[in-house]
Amino acid sequence: MISACDLFKDSTSSTGPTSGTTETFSGTLAQRGSSFYTFTVVQTGTVSVTLTSVGSSSTLVVGLGLGTPSGTNACTVTSSSPTASAGTTAQIAVTESPGTYCVQISDVGNLSATSTFSITIVHS
To answer: What is the CATH number of the domain that holds 33?
Structure first.
């Protein structure tokens, strides 16, 4: 069964055991658009979100958030990095309890065209 959130996922992969899971959320981001990915945390621990690439420039800035899914096509952001650029260090790292969460990427007005992106999520 496909959930409504699955309709907004671009491409993902998941590796590793239940504890210390690494997931990759990648796809395209339109000008003034946003995209989100839903995942499940199975035990209390740190959730780290790293924007590993966006567009062709390492200095391109986008919005990045972590929160909970709301309705069928939205992510209510509770932790964010309103101006994130790609790198190797997590832009968001918070402790979360077991549950369903989402990561959202959004254009804050800097994209001149649709751009590809990749985000790494590490959680328990």
So the answer is: 2.60.120.380
Domain extent for 53: 4-123
User: Tokens for 41?
Assistant: 């945390």
80, 66 contact by CB (below 8 A): yes
pLDDT score recorded for residue 49: 97
Retrieve residue 107's tokens.
């254009």
Residue 58: count of CB within 10 angstroms of its CB: 10
Q: Can you read off the two tokens belonging to residue 19?
A: 């504890």
Number of domains making up the chain? 1
Beta-strand ranges (E) seen in 3-123 are 11-15, 21-29, 34-41, 45-54, 61-70, 74-85, 92-96, 99-106, 115-123
Confidence band, pLDDT 50/70/90 cuts, at residue 107: very high
- For residues 58 and 8, give the distance between their C-alpha atoms in angstroms, rounded to a whole number: 25
**pTM of the complete model beyond 0.90:** no
CB–CB of 123/102 below 8 Å? no
Do 38 and 69 touch, CB atoms closer than 8 A? Answer: yes
